[in-house]
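User: Please predict structures.

Assistant: First:
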Amino acid sequence: MTNLKRSFFLASFYLAFILILGQTDYAGKPIINFASYFYMAIMIAIPATLFFPAISKVPVYVPLLAWAVIYMVILQNIDRTNSTTSIEFSIVVLEFIFLEAGVWIAHQLAVQISYAESLMDALAFGAFPNRVHGIEAESQRIKIELTRSRRYQRPLSLLVIEVEPEAGRITPSTMKSIQTDLMSRFTFARVGQIIDDLIRQTDLFLRDRRGRHIILCSETNFSNVELLAKRISRTVEDKTGRRALWGVASFPDEALTFDDLLQKASDRLVNGRSFEDRPVLMDAEKDTSRL
């Protein structure tokens, strides 16, 4: 956490330094009269670098180069005299250096925040181990399962599980934010452990960026996955006190791609209610042996 604190300090000091430097006057004139678009670039660059998770996963030279190009484009297309009297080359160079420094500091802070989140996830999954994997990491296996089901005309269904947030007591905003984040991570891991105990080894157990559990069930029709969803929902509520919302979609009756299956199941997120638009299945298909 020391590096995270250092990054927060650098970011705060940087913003304060830019503000003070731009507002400090000498003999009635600003010491450095930055262009207004420089401040706008800073206001966009730092939050954009911080709040897009993908940026923290790329080398720092990528956002540095991107914002260098953006600044050059702005410099060539906006008349500086509309917002500042400083047109000296040295001021332009100083703006460029400060912008790049801000992007570098924001990237370092983003990396440290991502690392801290990874530690919290590791702690949560260490307490409640399960075999859930990210969707991106299992994209190849997803394609294989869909191809196999299509080729051999075998049933395949997708189940989405989402736990409703817990309505906790009102706390100060910062403490509430920390508490909510930690509780959501531990709840996700605990629910994952429960689901892992209820599904088969052949089922593909995934998670997405929205914090939902996704189960791709091969050789399983819509009706059987609906029964599994109800069982998971009851077990989660019994063991955690939280309601588990769920939605099911089947391949190939309702969708032909994984993304379409996921969207269809997401649209059907319910809590233990039957779907009005579910496909009609023959009695012979309603085999509950998987449970």
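Second:
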Amino acid sequence: MSTAIPILIFILILGIVVFIHELGHYLMARRAGVFVEEFALGMGPKLFGFRGKPMKEEIRTLESEQESDEEYEPRRTLYSLRLFPIGGFCKMHGADESIPDDPTALNSKTIPQRALVMAGGSIFNFVMAFLLFFILVLLDGYLVPQVQSIIPDTPAYHAGLEAGDRITHLDGRRVALFEDFITQLEFSGGQPMDVRFVRDGERHNVTIAPMRVRDNWQFGFFMVRYVGLLESTVQEGQRRVGPWGTFTTSAEMILFNMRMPFTLLARLISGGNMPEGAGVMGPIGMAGEVTVIYQQVIERGIVPTLLTMLFFTALLNAALGIMNLLPIPALDGAKLIFLGIEAVRRKPVSPEREGLVHLVGFVALMLLAVFIAYRDITRLLG
């Protein structure tokens, strides 16, 4: 039972993230006047579905046909729930074929309209991630890489850091968040780091070699914490979150999670130090991680567990949003590339050629998914 609950929670989170993504495509398509044939949550056989109301364009067509005494059955979007709760899709009229003289077909729209439809899923994922980060920061607060107090006989103590010092850069890289700071420490692998900090408005530079504490690299100081609305009191050395700080921190968090996959990929290729547990992970591996995290935080109560799951939902939204914008065939990013080629050539790539490229990319993605699933299963069993 203790394993079933977090797995169900993960399935729910994944369903929400996919729903947000497909909702972005759906709303942008409707806004552009594109007929959506089916909006589905899940994959595989259809469990049930219902038809929605006709589009405005369909109603106008129906009225004109009635005036000419001809029968016309307006098209209605099918909203369906499918068996397997992983994935989903938004099937748009004219997305995979050329349908001339149909104003509701996707291929009849302008390049900017089609680009907005293609990017709509990722845009909605980013907006949802930002809103969730904003709620989490506002309620639970956040840490900043600023010294609250120094632990004696540590690298920070010997380097001369003092309470109030705000660390701004590590090895030349800007660190605005706790996550930025911790990630750069892990990348160091324990090697001495160039540390830039601000004290009384003046910049200072010092070299510090982090120390290993359990499974993490640390300098040896406690950070300043901004207290969220869930805590009624502010202790000494802490501060209360404010509207502007909440907004900027939420923006920094989503930007951090958007660029992190590329940072990890670059370090993987270059052979640099990697954080503990970092790597490519599929749904099975993520379900295992959620199970471990759930079992750790549930002992602290319902509220910490809920906040942790909201944080994981925000991370998945940011990850799905950025992944779909990658220029990989079958993903939204590749479709945007084809739109760019069409804008330069002033004519579209033939649907057959583009379809073949996306088919090859889809097969490659499925093979990669199988490989990642196999690796996730062997890791969990190990």
